[in-house]
Hints:
This protein is mostly helical. It has one domain. Helices cover 76% and strands 0% of the residues. Helix 2 (20-40) runs antiparallel to helix 4, helix 2 packs antiparallel against helix 6 and helix 5 (85-107) packs antiparallel against helix 6 (116-134). It is globular, with a radius of gyration of 16 Å. The model has no long low-confidence stretch (mean pLDDT 94). Belongs to the ERG28 family.
Amino acid sequence: MENITGQLTEIFSSLPEGNLPRWLLFTSALGIFNSVQNYFTSKLTKQVYANKANEVTPLAGRLFATWTWSVSMIRIYAAFHLNNKIMYDLGIWSYTIALTHFVSELFIFGGCKINVPFMSPMIVAVTSLTWMISHYDKYVTN
């Protein structure tokens, strides 16, 4: 157990300063949890897409899981490399794409309705995007 604790301490000590990298890791952990559950059930995803829950098929759930897992991995790498412009930009784009998806599902495609399951990813996307844009110059070194 001490060995695992030591390894985790070493890993987290290499994070850049501030809470943003920790936030990115936290949202990545949530994304990975969401991915795992989507591989096995679409129950939670049907709540997010409540207006068209019948369109959330097992295949759609698995595709969503794969997409969420991939952006979670981008965000993990970004968390550890916030001084790298490319990684920082990829982190920003990952939240921009997510926000675009959820806003379009709410206002254009009508798959979502404003409820707690829908608002959770919206709040994460808006908060993360705002935070990353406002702290760009603090982390990115050209």
